[in-house]
Amino acid sequence: MKRYQQPAEPFRIKAVESIKLLSRHEREQRMAAAKYNLFRLDAEEIYIDLLTDSGTSAMSNRQWAALMLGDESYAGARSFRKFEKTIKDIFGKKYVIPCHQGRVAENLMFSTILKHGQYIPNNTHFDTTRGNCLHKGGVPIDLPCADSASVEALPFKGNMDTVALEGFIKEKGTENIAMVIVTITNNSAGGQPVSMSNIREVSEICKRHGLMFYFDCARFAENAYFIKRDEAGYGNKSIREISQEMFSYCDGVMMSAKKDGLANMGGFIALNDRDLYDRLAELLILIEGFPTYGGLAGRDMEVLAVGLEEVMEFDYQDYRIEQVAYLGHRLIDAGMPIIEPTGGHAIFVDAGRYLPHIPAEQFPGQGLSVEFYVEGGIRTVEIGSVMFGGVNPETGEKILAPKELVRMALPRRVYTNSHMDYIADVAQRITNRKDEIKGYHITREPQFLRHFMCELAVCEPEHARA
Ligand SMILES: *Cc1c(COP(=O)(O)O)cnc(C)c1O
Questions:
Q1: What's the distance, Cα to Cα, between the start and end of the chain in Å?
Q2: How many angstroms separate the alpha carbon of residue 187 from the centre of ligand 1?
Q3: How far is the CA of 281 from the centre of ligand 1 (A)?
Q4: How far from 353 is each of 216, 324, 335, 338, 423, CA to CA, in Å?
Q5: pLDDT in the model for residue 2
Q6: Mean pLDDT of successive 10-residue segments in the chain (466 residues)?
Q7: pLDDT of residue 460
Q8: Whose CA is nearest to atom 11 of ligand 1?
Q9: Which one of 103, 125, 220 would you pick to mutate in the ligand 1 pocket, going by the greatest count of ligand atoms within 8 A of its CB?
Q10: Which residues are identified as catalytic?
Q11: Is there a contact between 363 and 439 (Cβ–Cβ < 8 Å)?
């Protein structure tokens, strides 16, 4: 069976960080003390933390060595030159704006180019991209391809709907569109990749209409791996060559380097437009720092220069994507329905389908997340009606999410395949008694982004009847 032949880790481990599994009794107590919200747990209380793949990568020995080479000069640091050279080579752009994380790149860009009321179409906006667009008076528009909603395991579900894009441009007029963005991989659509042919089409449409085309490319190397594996004509190309071709079609990129930078902090914009660079650099000096460090230490830029190269190594990506797929297949075998195919950085368990006895109003995703912690010390995140639900302020109607999911994001190079086996064993134990899992209700919630800090309680039978 091919699916169990996942490659062994293509690294050996030089430094270790201990993790501890608290007793079941302690886990039950901590979960109750955290009001059944996993964001309220301390990291020390967790055995395996799958909350996010952002900023959680393990650095290599070469990155740790590079750290000592950091040139912390205020202006013109050697470390910036290295960082800049690496980015110019991969992304093929002349100018680099460093910043401390991806959302600052978005803030700088939208503050500079966006006029009030202008649209920004994207395959699917990531939360911070959407938030920054709205904050600067723009209108974020999602145009995912039709396949993205299919339950079948189709390739390139992250694509943009190019017919819809063309129609949208004709309807709104180019003067009302600030730029077009393609997010690779499509994070909010489950880490699904975008094909080269789709990228080429979007680029061609933007050129024809004179629109700026940028990538939001936090996971560009994972996307390139999927193109190599699944798109005709790319099997013999390297991840670097594929990345270079992807970026040859765009005007520039915004990147959160906390993902495929294989580092714990960082981000940048790369572009060719000199005039735009000058305007961005001016704002950068005001809010982040001088254009040769922009919110990063010299050592951070050294680490990123190495990480951006390592992330394109075939053996690394093969292990990475196969590890995600391996966990997905083992969860299916443990009786948990997941979103298929597995994407680049996370598994999404369909808790709504898995726990049909818990109605969406009682948050089946939260119920399953709590269970993963209590049963195995594993932290996951609910992506369902706790996160996206609420009450419509005008009508008073309840809003529910389209799906009740639990996300397991895998940090890069951090957990071994034996950790994946452990997670699957926990999943099996949960399945064996899944009818006992209870729903939850919110007892206290803040006005915005309630999932981060809200408090919950178990639904007792009177709630079930209500
Ligand atoms: C993480 C992420 C961002 C935001 O980056 P931060 O570094 O967290 O500020 C933007 N877009 C995508 C697709 C991301 O995954």
A1: 48
A2: 9
A3: 20
A4: 32, 21, 11, 9, 20
A5: 46
A6: 70 96 98 97 97 98 98 98 98 98 97 98 94 95 95 95 98 98 92 97 98 98 98 98 98 98 98 98 97 97 98 97 96 97 96 97 97 98 92 88 95 97 98 97 87 93 56
A7: 84
A8: 126
A9: 103
A10: 74, 126-127, 216, 218, 259, 451
A11: yes
Q: What is the pLDDT of residue 199?
A: 98
For ligand 1, the distance from its centroid to the CA atom of residue 29, given in whole angstroms, is: 33
Neighbours of 35 (CB within 10 A): 16
φ/ψ of residue 405, rounded to 5: -115, 160
Nearest ligand 1 atom to the CA of 258 is 7
Domain range summary for the chain, segments of one domain joined by +: 24-53+313-465, 61-310
Ligand 1 pocket residues where CB is under 6 Å: 54, 101-103, 126, 128-129, 183, 187, 216, 218, 256, 258-259, 267
Query: Cα–Cα distance between 33 and 370 in angstroms, integer?
Result: 12
The torsion angles phi and psi of 226, rounded to 5 degrees, stand at: -65, -35
Query: In this structure, are residues 441 and 459 in contact, taking their beta carbons and an 8 Å threshold?
Result: yes
Considering the domain delimited by 24-53+313-465, tell me its CATH architecture.
Alpha-Beta Complex (3.90)
What pLDDT, on a 0 to 100 scale, did the predictor assign at position 390?
87
25, 60, 18, 24: which is closest to 43 by C-alpha? 18
Calpha distance 260→184 (Å, rounded): 11
Residue from 176, 175, 174 nearest 117 by CA: 176
Give the whole-angstrom CA distance, residue 462 versus residue 248.
60
- pLDDT for res 400: 94
**Residues constituting the chain:** 466
Task: Indicate the top mutation candidate among 110, 127, 216 to test ligand 1's pocket, ranked by most ligand atoms within 8 A of CB.
Answer: 216
Q: Which of 178, 100, 167 is nearest to 133 (CA)?
A: 178
DSSP letters along 43-71, please? Answer: GGG-SEE-S-SSS-PPPPHHHHHHHTT--
**Backbone conformation region of residue 184, classed left if phi is above 0, alpha if psi is from -120 to 50, else beta:** beta
Query: How open is the CA angle 327-199-206, to the nearest 5 degrees?
Result: 145
- Closest protein CA for atom 10 of ligand 1: 102
pLDDT by residue (tens digit) across 128-155?
A: 999 999 999 999 999 999 999 898 999 9
Question: 61-310 maps to which CATH number?
Answer: 3.40.640.10
